[in-house]
Amino acid sequence: MSNSSKHARSAAVRTPGPLKSPMLSFDLHAEIEQLRREEGWQAGRDSRTLVKHPDFRVVLTVLKSGARLHEHRAAGRISVQTLVGQIRMHADNKTFDLPAGHLLALEREIVHDVEALEDSAFLLSIAWRENVGNS
């Protein structure tokens, strides 16, 4: 079974929560522990969208040490905040080491990658201009 199939299957067993609401609250430690119990974590990474609006999204991601998210870009501005562990990001020919408690903000369309230097969890926030079709 491919990693994407495993991830899709593990995501399907989650109890769905509200993604859009005027107010949402999360216990990030509990969310991280839940992701680490899913099959995606066994393959090296897993994520869950916590907030999803047409112009704003928050995604919690867990990565095992050595796991990578290869080069990609986001259509919106992003921030990456390490909650647990340490990640390394490469963006615009620069290297950013982000231990727990650090945050990096990038302008839209900057190509970047992510590597876990140890078992890690981070929050990705993405903000788009309204009405650009990101629902």
What's the alpha carbon Rg, rounded to whole Å? 15 Å
CATH architecture: Sandwich
Number of distinct helices:
3
Q: Largest sheet, described in full?
A: 5 strands, antiparallel
Classify the helix fraction into a percent range: 10-25%
Give, in spatial order, the strands making up the sheet with the most strands: 1-2-9-4-7
User: CATH H-level name... which superfamily?
Assistant: Jelly Rolls
| pLDDT averaged over residues | 86
Please identify the top-level CATH class: Mainly Beta
Succession of helices and strands? HHHEEEEEEEEE
In total, the number of domains comes to 1
Instruction: Classify the beta-strand content into a percent band.
Output: 35-45%
- CA-to-CA gap between the ends? 29 Å
Q: Based on CA inertia axes, which overall geometry fits?
A: globular
Low-confidence sequence ranges: 1-13
- Compute the number of strand runs: 9
Give the CATH topology: Jelly Rolls
Structural class: alpha+beta
Topology:
Elements: H1 3-12, H2 28-36, H3 39-42, E1 45-53, E2 56-63, E3 68-72, E4 77-84, E5 86-91, E6 94-99, E7 103-106, E8 112-116, E9 120-127
Antiparallel strand pairs: 1-2, 2-9, 3-8, 4-7, 4-9, 5-6, 5-8
Describe the structure.
The longest helix has 10 residues, at 3-12. The protein is 17% helix and 44% strand. It starts with a helix and ends in an 8-residue tail after the last strand. The chain is α+β, with helices and mostly antiparallel strands and 135 residues long. It has helices at residues 3-12, 28-36, 39-42; strands spanning 45-53, 56-63, 68-72, 77-84, 86-91, 94-99, 103-106, 112-116, 120-127. A hairpin with a 2-residue loop joins strand 1 and strand 2 (56-63). It has a single domain (3-11, 26-127), classed as Jelly Rolls. It is globular, with a radius of gyration of 15 Å. The strands form 2 sheets. The protein has a 5-stranded antiparallel β-sheet with strand order 1-2-9-4-7. Mean pLDDT is 86; it is low at 1-13. The protein contains 3 helices and 9 strands; from the N terminus they run αααβββββββββ.
